[in-house]
Amino acid sequence: MPKRFVVAASEFPVLPPFAADFELAEALTVAAQQLHDTLTPQNTMRTAVRLAVHLLPAADHAGISVIERTQHRRAVAWTDDVVRSAESRHTGRDQAPYWENLWTTPVVRLEDSEADDSGTALSELGLRSALALRLRADRRRLTVLTAYSRKPRAFDEASTRLGRLFTAHVSLALDSATVREQLTEAMRTRDLIGQATGILMERMDMDAAEAFESLVKASQRENIKLRDLARRIVDANNAT
Fold this sequence. Notes:
alpha+beta, 6 strands, 49% helix, elongated
């Protein structure tokens, strides 16, 4: 299960306030720079929810959730405890009906939670409107960034267009961070397997090919991932 994150405003540099005289292109450029400076997908999402509140004039809170085809939904980033509660209210078969639309459309707006039966959980938290923007989608799951406002009908067409521009940057940064994380893990795994192979060569008087083959067979026999078996061998060797 993905780790969960709470955003602390003090962790981020101050961004110039978004006002009428602040060019949208400049605001998005600054946001994009901060997003692409993140090193992991988790940090990208933490940064994204903070920036969403800053960039969308009507937004008071923001969160990111993963929605499964099985109707399970889990929050993975949020700006505060209000959003944490809102993002976790609808799970499983109790999921709000309007979220289902995100499978077929990139944006869903909830105009007024008090006037919409599907928004009861939000109205109980004082959240009157919401703008849900799809970040990622495949056959099994969606990743969604949602901005919340304490005012009804807070998100208009302009907010929606701005939100879609912003989430395009978030998606690119998230993909980039994911690739970096995968490459980093691949390098670590390669080094770990190399160390384990070297240990087997020394202990069992094997050449590199024989040691690696022995490692693979043991991994299959014990039904354990190769990197985990390699880590076990390296840790045991270091402990002696």
